[in-house]
Amino acid sequence: MRPDGRASDELRSIQIQPDFIIHPEGSVLISVGKTKVICNASIEDRVPPFLRGHKKGWVTAEYAMLPRATPERNMRESTKGKVTGRTMEIQRLIGRSLRSVVDLEAMGERTLWIDCDVIQADGGTRTASITGAFVASVLAFKHALKKKQINRMPIGSYLAATSVGIHPIYGPLLDLCYKEDSTTNVDMNIVMNGRDEFIEIQGTGEEATFSEEDLARLLSLAKKGIHELIEAEKSILGDLVIEQKVGTNK
Amino acid sequence: MRPDGRASDELRSIQIQPDFIIHPEGSVLISVGKTKVICNASIEDRVPPFLRGHKKGWVTAEYAMLPRATPERNMRESTKGKVTGRTMEIQRLIGRSLRSVVDLEAMGERTLWIDCDVIQADGGTRTASITGAFVASVLAFKHALKKKQINRMPIGSYLAATSVGIHPIYGPLLDLCYKEDSTTNVDMNIVMNGRDEFIEIQGTGEEATFSEEDLARLLSLAKKGIHELIEAEKSILGDLVIEQKVGTNK
Amino acid sequence: MRPDGRASDELRSIQIQPDFIIHPEGSVLISVGKTKVICNASIEDRVPPFLRGHKKGWVTAEYAMLPRATPERNMRESTKGKVTGRTMEIQRLIGRSLRSVVDLEAMGERTLWIDCDVIQADGGTRTASITGAFVASVLAFKHALKKKQINRMPIGSYLAATSVGIHPIYGPLLDLCYKEDSTTNVDMNIVMNGRDEFIEIQGTGEEATFSEEDLARLLSLAKKGIHELIEAEKSILGDLVIEQKVGTNK
Amino acid sequence: MRPDGRASDELRSIQIQPDFIIHPEGSVLISVGKTKVICNASIEDRVPPFLRGHKKGWVTAEYAMLPRATPERNMRESTKGKVTGRTMEIQRLIGRSLRSVVDLEAMGERTLWIDCDVIQADGGTRTASITGAFVASVLAFKHALKKKQINRMPIGSYLAATSVGIHPIYGPLLDLCYKEDSTTNVDMNIVMNGRDEFIEIQGTGEEATFSEEDLARLLSLAKKGIHELIEAEKSILGDLVIEQKVGTNK
Amino acid sequence: MRPDGRASDELRSIQIQPDFIIHPEGSVLISVGKTKVICNASIEDRVPPFLRGHKKGWVTAEYAMLPRATPERNMRESTKGKVTGRTMEIQRLIGRSLRSVVDLEAMGERTLWIDCDVIQADGGTRTASITGAFVASVLAFKHALKKKQINRMPIGSYLAATSVGIHPIYGPLLDLCYKEDSTTNVDMNIVMNGRDEFIEIQGTGEEATFSEEDLARLLSLAKKGIHELIEAEKSILGDLVIEQKVGTNK
Amino acid sequence: MRPDGRASDELRSIQIQPDFIIHPEGSVLISVGKTKVICNASIEDRVPPFLRGHKKGWVTAEYAMLPRATPERNMRESTKGKVTGRTMEIQRLIGRSLRSVVDLEAMGERTLWIDCDVIQADGGTRTASITGAFVASVLAFKHALKKKQINRMPIGSYLAATSVGIHPIYGPLLDLCYKEDSTTNVDMNIVMNGRDEFIEIQGTGEEATFSEEDLARLLSLAKKGIHELIEAEKSILGDLVIEQKVGTNK
């Protein structure tokens, strides 16, 4: 029995509150159990210098935690004067994941800025950020469609992420909360699209290892969770996103 | 007539939601009109090196804005690698204001960390932060009382802050929203305690000036607003705070 | 009786030595008692990017202390790799104060750089910096007039600053030296122009408070001191500055 | 046919030159095709503060490239004043991978510093670094055994890493060189130990996706490559490492 | 004929004003022609960690220029967030030069901090800094003798520095002003003690070269200048310094 | 007898391995005894902003050490977030030295980047860097000639550097290894060109001094060493460099 009574293949309760902040083009507050992340998507009418004149857009992400998102207060990265390795790794992951479903050419020479700010953390902040960022991005592009900045939705698939892991006693688990995450040997973050394709697999067994059979069981759990997350996204986004291979994807 | 239909001596709608985040000892979401600030207060069982062994505590504050708290996206200070002058000025102001009502000796050798994170900005973020930080601090000390870390509430007065300014046409106004703030000549932030005493007066007339009469009118408006803010605080805090000169105050 | 024998409404001895350094367009050494600040004003033939093409100039200030301006040696900010909050607050104050009397349009697309370097500190370095910076700025514009870069003095008023405070025994005092400043409860910096108008009031009662009556007495002391400071400025600047509302002031 | 004539399941030529630099406790130059990395392992007789008194050691890694390891010169990170996200991600990966085979308790309160400096890059620098760092670490512990700092080899398994990817025309490939890496859709780095267990799987399909079947084929290729890399390690290390579950591994 | 009418072996006018700033233990304003440097020497009752318990002191120097010490305004190093290579080179030179005449053991476990702040520059700022820093240091130790912190003057020789160079037309010159320095091919800074011994020779012929004969002529000019500088020092310091090999010198 | 059995005027064994790294335009590994430096020279088709449009090139150098180039591990400068004073001093010296033999106009608007990375240190790393950088630079220009980017070799002289010092017992020594360097009183780095002219003399006697006779003996030793180093360069470079005064040299 898991600490919060869930079955091993059960997601935590998901809430996605759209239009959470008034200023961004797209904004959601996503709650996955006690983990809460404000995901804002901004559209800027220019691209970084290396892309100017290429008639395509760019997608980039930033991630941060409030100092008391966690049980112990963490020093702000602005006070430290630098961004930690963990933060950079997460924001690179969010950016790559989103770019896998965005048709950069259909965006025009614009940048989609994604800001994921964790206000309360209980494990799985990076996967909640990806799921929330996806919804915020669709809402931002919906706003751009309405303003006729673009003429079609430049997103070609649903996208969601979750974590899975192997507990020393209970075995493979879906959607780890912090307490589970800290006692679990193997930890894996999975990002998938709406066509059951993998975007990212990041599995690490620090001070532990895993076999091919373990891997198969974990991927199966993740797939189940991602199906449910995508259903939650669809209940908000309706038919804004239609599955199709987008132009810039190889 | 002000943009949002208020009278010149009318505050915006105030909401203070206690226990907003689960981890901090004290946490509120304060909304002043459309300005929304998460104020978390953390109690740490040690003091900075310069105070060790002095049998007294310390109060310090940090302030930040989410990148899309504002209509245009702002670069994160962690990405810039440094904290701006504006941020430092504000966090010094919040810290000084709180220290004016806290009995540092009654805290013991502990640090009260205040984190004010603006998630949505519409003018008056520094004064909303002070008001919210006050409530969060009382809640944090209430938590420390319950855990018997301290044996009496180390706060000796209510505390609240608001802004006032002089509009070129309508004259003196209370509680400026962003649109008013940007068209107003003189801008003043006032911090007062529950005994009608001033803690801070910061009045600046960039590209404008003000007379002694102007000053008197502005202070009178501010006093009215602060009375109402303190009523809002009392509706949440009940009788947790009793007005009295605290030990370390000169 | 104050430590140096002054009356409560008496300024320290003021000396303003013009043309102190040969390279800047305007340069003074200002001494206010034992506080000594080199104030240099430089005119640069361009403006920051955000003002380009707006046909107006910019005024910005920097402030620093030599490591041994103080009784204990302070680490250089260049060695620390960053500017402290106190320094930023002071340089923002100096810049805002000067901008209140400068007609930015009359400057043309130029930047007035003000550098205040405290070589010896005994309290009141920020107010001495403002007073010295004002004189250096007028001298710099005089130089620009002579070189026909501009065709009229773009300064529309005299400007000076002083500090006032409330001593626990002697009550309100004008122009605090360091020893007084460190034992005084309430500390206020006042900037005024030559027409008895306020530019800035920054009053703070860290670990203390003040009433409206206190405030009135402090402002009256400050006004007296600023009148005398402006007389000292006039003895150097003669009729270079004529009181008038300048164009860019609201 | 691959650019360098290899079969799809063929590693590039591997050379591991032990004792490359005279000062470190363990030092190798590893060449994987044209990719060359100096891997130095240093043993320091203390641990970071958070581990003091815990009677266990620590393993940490740093990674850098010479500016001309690449066809275009890259700016040094010391000149930039900060370490990039890519570098942090790689050094975290190297550190985690090594910790999976080291018995931290058997090390005593010591730190194993791993320095991977790429002097020539042609793809696969992070996986070559892990393989080289493993050999350097075993050599460093051999040195510590000889000096009687420790009394048994604190490494419980072989460890090696390689990359695999899916080419749009030729399909799954083992050990990508730079030219292949830049034209391949899906890129995966795999770290395994000497018992066919996974330590890390990092698969990313930026602007592409992959199916479960793709994944199975890639893992099979990786396993073949890692077997061969471990053979190369064994030819240098002889019987220094004996496969066994080590103490601190969960 | 040199720009300022000097003979080729003639120093500029030297003035050394002792007790320039009131707070430091030793303080001078040195003027060498139009070059003016405030040299402050501070004695701190502790040494850096690497020297603790070694019963000897330390001497370290910092150097900076005011932004308008030069004809064009220079950005502050605190604003840049880092100290330039030129500054570091100069402060290392000043520190090494002073250490060559100080008996570190006779200082006790104390640090002599030397701060050289150029307020007006016209060439030769680093050599003026060394000469001024020497006088400030002797005054600081005189102060420590008076306070009985030390029981003898820990300085064993006079010390002074000057620059020499080769002008394309006029040949070798002593004590280059800025205009000469910028048109001279070979530039050499020489530091000598009161016994005609060299402490430092730093000769550089950027975009030029020099022969052994050139070198001999330059050293001879430098020696003449340094004799005169030491006479100027003696007129201030009287018999405070007695020539003798000091203990810690090899 | 010196630690390694050399005569006092004997260089250590010199090896210069050309084309060490495949990517740079010029690349050598220079070994001077146990000191080993990778010297890469890169030609970039643009100049820094201050030189644009001047129809001449630029030469700049960077220097670093691997953390375990030394017996004790040194922290990386990228991890520290800044370049030390020692590094800056060395890279300025390398850059100046190279510029003394390069005809900047003959380069066209190009930058020659020199990267000296010490992989193993045993004294004399800066002089080995200069000698190695010279060879790498000639090779880089040879490559540019072959690609017809330039039409003649823009280097007008050979260039080499060595160190000399005075040992307390054995007197003047040529080419100090680390053990000698740390026990020697006076340390001097000499850079000369192929016409027996000095480029740089940097002599320092920290905690020691030297006389004119000492200087003469040291320069004579250095000259002998540099003749031999230039012979080693010639054996690699053949007749690529012809001695002649180059255009931009004064």
Automatic annotation (TrEMBL), chains A, B, C, D, E, F:
Enzyme Commission number(s) from the entry: 2.7.7.56
Lineage, opening ranks: Bacteria, Bacillati, Bacillota, Bacilli, Bacillales
The name this protein goes by in its record: Ribonuclease PH
Binding site for phosphate: R86, G124, T125, R126
Underlying gene: rph
Enzyme class at the top of the EC tree: transferase
Keywords annotated in UniProt: Nucleotidyltransferase, RNA-binding, rRNA processing, Transferase, tRNA processing, tRNA-binding
Claim: DNA-binding is one of the keywords in the record: no
Subunit and interaction comment: Homohexameric ring arranged as a trimer of dimers.
Source species of the chain: Sporolactobacillus shoreicorticis
Transport in keyword set: no
Reaction catalysis annotation: tRNA(n+1) + phosphate = tRNA(n) + a ribonucleoside 5'-diphosphate
Stated family: Belongs to the RNase PH family.
PANTHER family in UniProt: EXOSOME COMPLEX COMPONENT, EXOSOME COMPLEX COMPONENT RRP41
A Pfam family the protein falls into: RNase_PH
Residues in Exoribonuclease phosphorolytic domain copies: 10-136, 159-225
An example molecular function term from Gene Ontology annotations: tRNA nucleotidyltransferase activity
